[in-house]
Amino acid sequence: MDPTIFLTSITTSLSRMIASETWLRIYSTAHVVFVIGDIVLVIGSIILAIRAYASRRTIDIHAAPPSVAQILKKPGLQAAYKELWDKILARAIVSPPDSYRTALMDADALIDQLLQDAGFVGTNMAERLGRLNNMGLRSLNAVFRAHKIRNELAHSSDIVLLEKEMKEVLSLYEKFLREVKIL
């Protein structure tokens, strides 16, 4: 059979079917169903938009994010951290150079505990510090540096700290504690 004749017969058959009354009923019914479906979707979208608008929370984009000090509202918590900090400073000079290393480890642990108590989540201190990025803390980089030094000390027993270095690193932690109003 010639392909041209075959295509012509199929085209003719389809033309007859399209022109038939049954096909027109099917098309008309489908058209009505889809128009109704479109109307329902538009009305549903409008209702959802109205409900979303009504239940939105107002966000003041000009308001400063809460500080760590505001987050640490538990009574006596700030005083407890200040007392711990004072003990760390007192122990730092007990038996150098080992007490220097211990003081830095304790200071880092104190900051980490403070972050946890403030509700900052993360699998480690670096992740919790990372959560402070949008809080505008000027001392954040300083405490990151101090934490990095602490990690180097923790992973290498060959490093010996001098008093000057210990005071410098402790001052980085202290800078952070002052900014968050613990000291």
Structure description:
There is one protein chain. The protein folds into two domains: 3-54; 68-179. The radius of gyration is 35 Å and the shape is elongated. The chain has eight helices and no strands. 71% of the residues lie in helices and 0% in strands. It has helices at 3-19, 21-54, 68-71, 77-92, 98-117, 125-130, 140-155, 163-179. It has 183 residues and is mostly helical.
Please provide a brief summary of the model.
With 183 residues, the protein is mainly α. It is 71% helix and 0% strand. The model has no long low-confidence stretch (mean pLDDT 81).
Query: Radius of gyration, Cα only, in angstroms?
Result: 35 Å
- End-to-end gap: 97 Å
| Helix-and-strand structural type | mainly alpha
Please state the average pLDDT score.
Answer: 81
Please estimate the helix content: over 70%
Our count of domains comes out at 2
Could you spell the SSE succession in H and E letters? Answer: HHHHHHHH
Note the overall shape.
elongated
Give unreliable regions as ranges.
none
Strand content: under 5%
Number of discrete helical segments: 8
* Biggest sheet details: none
Say how many strands there are.
Answer: 0
